[in-house]
Amino acid sequence: MLRRAAAAAAAAVRGLRGPLGAVGQRQQRSGEGSPDGGSRSDRAPKIYTRTGDAGFSSTFTGERRPKADRIFEALGATDELSSAIGLAGEFMSEKGYTFVEQLHKVQCMLQDVGSNIATPLSSAREAHLKRTSFSEKPVLELEQWIDSYSEQLPPLRAFILPSGGKSSAALHFSRAVCRRAERCVVPLVQAGEADPNVAKYLNRLSDYLFVLARYTAMKEGKEEKIYVKPGP
């Protein structure tokens, strides 16, 4: 897990902001000093690098691609998904739900998803593949969670609108973002640039978020709003 986390961090930095460490490296090579007499290279690097100002960014494999490339579109959607889940988790934490830990684990897995996306197979070396591989195990875990919550829910007999209280509605929103992330990843998988298990994970994750939204509404005693066809 630690190795995956390191890969995820590197992928996020290189894939979305360029090689962040380059700032410190440039200063170290130039020998520039700081106003207080210390070496600037001893300081934490700046959050901005200006390496993407021309509209290009780096993959984990070192490729420079346009920021409009579908790899960065998929990375951005995955980042949005993690943020949406984080918001839902905060609402749920206020209620003291223990299954918030599942959402935290999902966010960690999405870092691994991003690492795989940021490592296009067409330019990946063996070392890259070892660090950013994505197995089917997380997919199977989501299926177990889905089955567990589904068994406790009343049968679904109508189309449910995103509703059921703040926590539930936030989970429904996360589900919608997850669907978009999946749509961004599928072309990469079909092109042989990303692991098929990544698309499978996002597919199951949207189902998990839907079921958890319903379960949360039930736990809070909130009403799920049902689609009603408008009259003439």
From TrEMBL:
Belongs to the Cob(I)alamin adenosyltransferase family. GO terms for biological process: cobalamin metabolic process. Residues 19-62 are annotated as: Disordered. The keyword Isomerase does not apply. One of its GO terms (molecular function) is ATP binding. Converts cob(I)alamin to adenosylcobalamin (adenosylcob(III)alamin), a coenzyme for methylmalonyl-CoA mutase, therefore participates in the final step of the vitamin B12 conversion. Generates adenosylcobalamin (AdoCbl) and directly delivers the cofactor to MUT in a transfer that is stimulated by ATP-binding to MMAB and gated by MMAA. Homotrimer. Residues 47-215 form the Cobalamin adenosyltransferase-like domain. Gene3D superfamilies: Cobalamin adenosyltransferase-like. It catalyses: cob(I)alamin-[corrinoid adenosyltransferase] + ATP = apo-[corrinoid adenosyltransferase] + adenosylcob(III)alamin + triphosphate. This is Corrinoid adenosyltransferase MMAB. Pfam families: Cob_adeno_trans (PF01923). The keyword ATP-binding applies. Keywords: ATP-binding, Nucleotide-binding, Transferase. It comes from the Eukaryota.
